[in-house]
Amino acid sequence: MQNEQLSVLVANLKRLLRRGATKQLMNILDKTHMADLSIIIRELSPDNRIRLFSLIQDPEDVGELFSNLDENLFLDLVKDVELERLVKIFESMASDDAAYLLNLLDESLSDQILEKMETEDSDDVEQIMSYDEDTAGSVMVTDFVALEEDVGAKQVIEALQNKYLDVEMPFYIYVIDEYGKLVGVSSLRQLVVVHPEKPLKEFMATDVVTVKTYTDREDVAKLVSRYDYLAIPVVDDDNRIMGIVTVDDVIDILTDSATEDMLKMAGVGED
Q1: Are the C-beta atoms of residues 233 and 208 closer than 8 Å to each other?
Q2: With respect to CATH, is domain 3-133 assigned 1.25.60.10?
Q3: pLDDT tens digits, the chain, 271 residues: what are they?
Q4: Hey, how many other C-beta atoms are within 10 angstroms of the C-beta on 125?
Q5: What dihedral do alpha carbons 70, 75, 77, 80 form, nearest 10°?
Q6: CB-based burial label for 142 (10 Å; 0-12, 13-18, 19+)
């Protein structure tokens, strides 16, 4: 959304909030991307922020909004949200985003949320939280498509349609051997042009570029940028795939890095 459009939307929201026009406000929220709302909400007074935020009911929408907010604004909005609602919000988020935001919260509140989350979700988030802040492990997504090398193309497509519906960015199919080690990768394009019965091992690429969980995240970003990948797999020391770093996270890493460099050039501390 362009700056001029955002300015008009901010003015309309302020007017509707003064009038208490809940129905019209909800109609606008339904049509507004949460990334745009994260910019708009900064322009509102604290009271109006809370009133507008209270109208967002979908946990996924709230999670996306939280992921796009500045740290201070996130902490300001989250403090009055009930625990049960926070649990649903964090369960709906990508594991890397949830881990990042939980690390910003008071430790006792973070622990309460993790304790009440679904076991699989909380395990993924806690795993990411265990890695150092500037490593690939801290920004990886633990939802990815990994299938054994003998699986046929038709079965892979069926798995994508059934088992992997919730995977955020299924750009690539990662191929593992019987021991769970990464041995290859296939793009979606490769998958749909081969014979349905052809197994992954016969058309996968074997020269897979990977990073370790402890690889510096800026080095990961440079690799993705260099090869124009949409995602890069993160493996442990035994070459078992642990997660993927996606291109949207790479953009965030490069933006943060550029901002830090600009501040240093201006003689301003990073904090």
Answers
A1: yes
A2: yes
A3: 667 888 888 999 999 999 999 999 999 999 999 999 999 999 999 999 999 999 999 999 999 999 999 999 999 999 989 999 999 999 999 899 999 999 999 999 999 999 999 988 899 999 999 999 899 999 999 999 999 999 999 999 999 999 998 887 788 999 999 999 999 999 999 999 999 999 999 999 999 999 999 999 999 988 988 888 899 999 999 999 999 998 888 887 777 766 665 556 666 655 5
A4: 28
A5: 170
A6: buried
Dist CA 177 CA 150 (whole Å): 9
CA distance 125 to 94: 9
List the CATH code of the domain at 139-253. 3.10.580.10
Instruction: Please give the Cα distance from 210 to 94 (Å, whole number).
Output: 21
- What residues does CATH 1.25.60.10 cover in the chain? 3-133
Q: Are 61 and 34 in contact (CB under 8 A)?
A: yes
Q: In the beta sheet, which residues pair with residue 211?
A: 234
Please, are residues 57 and 88 in contact by the beta-carbon 8 Å criterion?
no
Are 187 and 210 spatial neighbours (Cβ–Cβ below 8 Å)?
no
Amino acid at 92: S
Note the pTM of the prediction, 2 decimals. Answer: 0.81
Tell which residue, 227, 218, 199, 222, has the closest CA to residue 256.
218
CA distance 271 to 258: 15
> CATH 3.10.580.10 spans which residues of the chain?
139-253
Q: Which amino acid is at 258?
A: A
Q: Are 245 and 232 in contact (CB under 8 A)?
A: yes
